Amino acid sequence: MRVVADTNTVISGMLWQGAPRKVLDAARKGSVELFTSAVLLAELEDVLGREKLAKRLALISVAPRELVLGYAALATLVSPPMIAAVIEEDPDDDAVLACALAAHAEVIVSGDSHLLSLKTYEGIHIIRAPKLIARIPGEGR
Fold it and tell me: Mind listing the pLDDT tens digit for each residue in 54-104?
């Protein structure tokens, strides 16, 4: 299954336990294929560098750059096309949609209300991590 994970899902999966972690684990096992873009990797590095995550990163003794490089190695990099604005309330979310188009993704996994409210985009399902895990054979336990 071809999947684009929104930045919030990636960060949750890297720093905490739960369904987002299982998404990343499924990618490591080859049960899903993750895709990302340069824009999404830059956003990931920006958010990981924020003060509100500094304590958590210190607790697990890892630098933001290490996490970004690890994710970049796990996911396949695509070059998204320019798309017409879709999410007026948060235009940064359009980068996730563009990445999913370029990746020919089946699913976008996110916790973002703007993306989730779309439900689908160009035939790509937009769901939360627990729903994705339930779709992966052997993972939805």
Answer: 999 999 999 999 999 999 999 999 999 888 889 988 888 999 999 999 999
The whole-angstrom separation of Cα 88 and Cα 11 is: 24
Q: Name all contacts of 13-17 with Cβ < 8 Å and 24+ positions apart.
A: 13/129, 14/67, 14/70, 14/71, 15/53, 15/56, 15/57, 15/60
Range of the domain at 117: 2-135
Q: Which residues contact 75 (CB under 8 A, 6 or more apart)?
A: 5, 27, 34, 35, 36
The CA distance from 75 to 73, in Å, is: 6
Position 140 pLDDT exceeds 70: no
CA triplet 63, 130, 10: central angle to 5 degrees?
20
Average pLDDT over residues 35-59: 96
Q: What is the CATH number of the domain that holds 118?
A: 3.40.50.1010
Please report, for residues 24, 49, 76, the alpha-carbon distance to residue 32 in angstroms, rounded to integers and kept in the order given. Answer: 9, 27, 11
Structural domains counted in the chain: 1
